[in-house]
Amino acid sequence: MAGAVGLITARGGSKGVPHKNIKELAGKPLIAWTIEAALASQELDRVVVSTDDKEIASIARQYGAEVPFLRPLRLALDDSSHADVVLHAIDWLEEHDQFVAEYVVMLQPTSPFRIAADIDGALDFARQKNAKSVIGMMHAPSHPICLRGMTEDGLLVELTEQRDESQLRRQLLEDVYAFNGAVYVVQTEAFRESKTFRPEGETYGYLMPTERSWEIDTEWEFLVASLLMKNQLQVAPRSKAA
Q1: What are phi and psi of 90, to 5 degrees?
Q2: Alpha-carbon dihedral 132, 138, 142, 144, rounded to 10 degrees
């Protein structure tokens, strides 16, 4: 069994931001930032892009990633699951390349601030713990005690049994964390069995800095990410070995 494969998932369709995965972000197609981080990783044995789109495939190859197949249309729909996309990729690599990775590291192009050290850190942590799954996390922007639901006419609804947040000192609230979407590390065999990135009771979190946890789903987030990346490059140019 081989080491680890970095699997970058990038379908052609995108409702939030059209052609999002290849839209230019600070001088490069969005997907390029993830490809370069993956190629700079010391722990990944291969960097593979799973896409249904020929243009994305061409750009991915230009930046050094492997695109050994085009994803079937059934796996490129709005309701297609990431689990099925990963299973298709690992099955293809095993059948056609006789490549069976111990770990699959799913990397989404929508997290361009993730660097090689984040990928290596999460994968190394998974190996240390012999974890079935390790997921990138960040400090949650809001504590659950501050969250509410809201009806159509604007009435606030309690989500859980909560104390009045005005009576609590923020410093005394326990730390809470949110998925950041940047890194998903899963043992291949465990994933085949469970078909989930979060097997119950067997998933570890890998804490990443907030500034490297920005995820793009909307035009506004893309705009902010562009400004942040340009500023970051001016302050400290990002090397491929970062």
Answers
A1: -70, -35
A2: 10
Structure-token pair, residue 92? 């293809």
Q: Which two tokens stand for residue 168?
A: 């609590």
Cα separation, 80 vs 106, in Å, equals 16
Q: What is the DSSP letter of 122?
A: H
| Distance of alpha carbon 188 from alpha carbon 132, whole angstroms | 8
Cα-to-chain-centroid distance, residue 166: 35
| Side-chain half-sphere CA neighbours of 159 within 13 A | 8
Number of C-beta neighbours around residue 54 at 10 A = 11
Query: Residue 38 is encoded by which pair of tokens?
Result: 């993956």
Query: Cα separation of 30 and 177, whole Å?
Result: 26
Closest CA to 114 of 196, 6, 20: 6
Looking up tokens 């998933």 gives 203
- Count the Cβ atoms, other than its own, within 10 Å of residue 8: 26
158-217 confidence digits (pLDDT tens): 876 655 555 555 556 678 889 999 999 999 999 999 999 988 778 999 999 999 999 999
Closest CA to 86 of 194, 179, 12, 1: 194
Q: How far is CA 238 from CA 93, 114, 221, in A?
A: 32, 11, 21
Tokens of 161: 């049994």
Token duo for residue 239 = 């090397």
Q: Please state at what angle helix 30-40 crosses helix 54-62, rounded to 10 degrees.
A: 40
